[in-house]
Design goal:
The complex is a heterodimer of chains A (131) and B (364). Chain A is built from four helices and nine strands; from the N terminus they run βββαβββββααβα. The termini of chain A are close together. Classes of the chains: A alpha+beta (131), B alpha+beta (364).
Amino acid sequence: MECPKGFYYTKTHEWVKVDGNCATVGITSHAAEQLGDIVFVELPEVGREVKHGEAFVVVESVKAVSDCYAPVSGRVIEVNQELVNHPELVNQDAFGAGWMVKIEMSDARELGELMDEVQYKKVLEEEGLSK
Amino acid sequence: MSDVKYTPLYSLHQKCGARIEPFAGWAMPIQYTGIIEEHNSVRTSCGVFDVSHMGEIRVKGKKASVFLQQMLTNDIVKGYIGRVIYSPMCNPEGGVIDDMTVYCLGNEEYMLVVNASRTEIDFRWLSERAGDGVNVEDISLRLAEIALQGPASASVLQKIWPKCMELRYYHFERYRAGEKEVIVSRTGYTGEDGYEIYCDWEDAPELWETLMDAGADEGITPCGLGCRDTLRLEAGMPLYGHELDESHTPIEAGLERFVCTDKGDFVGAASLKEQLASGTRVRLCGFQMIEPGIARAGYRVLDGGKVIGVVTSGSHSPTLGKAIGMAYVESELAVPGKRIDIDLRGRVRTAEIVKLPFYKRHKK
């Protein structure tokens, strides 16, 4: 299972890539694979204030619906409009073109509670799902 | 719950990297590569499904047809050897115990193909009511079933059994496969042309491989239960446990044409006749989402804030490219064109009632 370096991870399978005060958020390729074919991503409104742990994105696959939780608190400054017409990008390129939301962080210290790729791989192994 | 059961093709699915999940007590392949890809293969070419989890119950004896005529809502006697008949089976209140295909195998010999989740219940229901002259036997673990579905099915299968081209819809024949015999019927659960093939449990892997080889040029695709569900939903076919259960009748489910009220008495007849005469409180209907989101089973259907029904199945339709579903809605409101709201986990979204089925194949 792909878990790129330099990303932060959550136990609920979101990833975070930090650039200055901006956190780009998506779901991991493991999460995307588990969901199967993703057919709809409901993104938050730009400008919305989100709290760490708050459900802020809804991902619908053919079989199931799943919430994504904000890994950090802050203001939504951009959403990936490409996903409106091409939700399959999340399956195809979870860590790249399938990104979902950019958050202007209000408290970068929250990043300290997230995992690095080594810790996240361990979580996957514990779930017995890592290949 | 007893232990998980495995079909004779289980290790083959594992080898192919299928995603295996429990379904009705069976470890079944849900998908191989992806539900949408498999779905589209069935709509455009052909796909092959392991449906060995389906139950088979044999009913034979000199009173078999009289017995089934009493137990089932459809007219079994209009069948003849080689015919397949679809029928609900009801309780005295008209609630659906199961829905099934009935194979008229011989003189006073029938095979009922029933839902995996209902096999034990059906078997008990029938056994307890079968009198002298009727023998009911659960042969589910002796017969495997493989479905070949899609527009290319006939051209693939005729490479193995040329006569299958002439087989008419809802008819079956017995063909030879080496030393053994198989039952091949022109039936299915996808809305496409196709076949369902019954063979001995241990012969299933060889049959699967033979089909895969025969369909190689047509791009035959192994398919899981995930796309079986999206295909049957597009075709407006009910699934037991979703559209059908003991608290809904075949009339409410829109299956009137499989309820034969002029054949003499049968279990549930009085209740069903009453509903046919005076109407039902609720009615199964199709809907498509107008606003974004997918309505799933169990979500509430609203009209002006008032609950008027409940979603039974819902998914993304790969063929139509939009979200569709079926729901039980108060009968007077279940009219095509009617705008409804559906509560998607707290997000109320607009949908529209539409005619079933969502998808109909072009018949040649």
